[in-house]
Amino acid sequence: MTGRRALGRQFGWLWAAFVVSSYGTGLRFGAFPMIAVLVLHSGPTQVAALAAAGRAVGALVAVPLGPWVEFRRKRPVMVAMDLIRCAALLSVPAAFALGRLSFAQLLVVSVAVATADIAFRAASGAYLKGLVPPEDLLVANGRFESTTWTATVVGPPLGGAAMGMFGPMTTVVADAVSYLLSALGLRAIGGTEPRPARAGAARLRAGELLEGWRYVLAHATLRPLFFNAIVVNGLIMATEPLLAVLLLGPLGFAPWQYGLAFAAPCVGGLIGSRLAPRLVTRFGQHKVMFSAGVLRACWPVGLAFVRPGVPGLVLIMVVQFGLVTCCGLFNPVLATYRLDHTPSDRVVRTLTAWSVSSSAAIATMTAVWGLLAALTGPRTAIAVAGVLLLATPLLLPRREHAPLDTREQAASVT
Fold first, then answer.
1. 243 Cβ partners below 8 Å, 6+ apart?
2. Contacts of 350 (CB under 8 A, 6+ apart)
3. Which end of the chain is more exposed for a tag (fewer CB within 10 A), N or C?
């Protein structure tokens, strides 16, 4: 199992579509807050609300999409979500050109994009499971993960330069075009996709909205992984705004130093994702996932000890490199494990439940840690998050469970 394995023409188009949209998203990083501040003259409260509302409301709106997407062909859904994101983003520069752009529109667009993101990720996970043989899933997920981190390294600096030279609308247009190109790439995959069979009632029932959560919470190993992922992602993301306040404020870091401190270590994500297939082949899926899950929890507490100047910059880069490398290794193994242990007729609902819960947790924890920072200071709030992260390995499953076999999948349908 190596990263060089050929996965076929159809996967090549799927990967190409993912690459172009990932780089578009990387270019647009930070564009909406910049538009809110520079164009609409919004205050800190509105900018924070913009960041939280997209995740929270988008997660709520996405809840009924899981059962709806489950029993539809996945590629048309993915194309539709790309086009929705393209149209929503293009509405921003269009309104700006007409002098009609408002903060409310930015909120609506952020919610629409967040909702489409969740639906797209769920549909693409199910589509990938049907497109790639089980033994190649980790290689495929590793390539997606490496693309994400590469886009994170390259996209924000280029996007920042483009916004500085041509204005904040430039990267919004670029991201919209990337979704259009992604849709064209998905269309180029070709082939026929069978329509998923639906057992029972033809119409969507209210109980199906919770099917993804029911399956995850009843599963012996997915349940602890689910809570681990939610807590870890929430705590890490909740401290990002606080780090920005601490570094750019009291510690006096220049904006370019702040960008370098978080962009350069993303090379670790590329390294981790490329190593994942080799390490799993040698040590086994469960051992690699457990070890990476433990190690990624050990790094963030170091951010509470950052100091001004070059030593502080070096400390941040070392901590971030360790964290991102572990995440780059953990994430594709988790994504593969999740697909291996989820029946085909529940993949979309399971992935939707996972994404909705993660988005809601990040939004909630970001608000809570913002309040904690207001009461105690950013450094203390960052330290509390780091200490709590040290306990998250307790949520990781201790024993390995075999993937679903054909009989189990058949039984799960009935």
1. 303, 378, 382
2. 212, 215, 216, 222, 338, 342
3. C
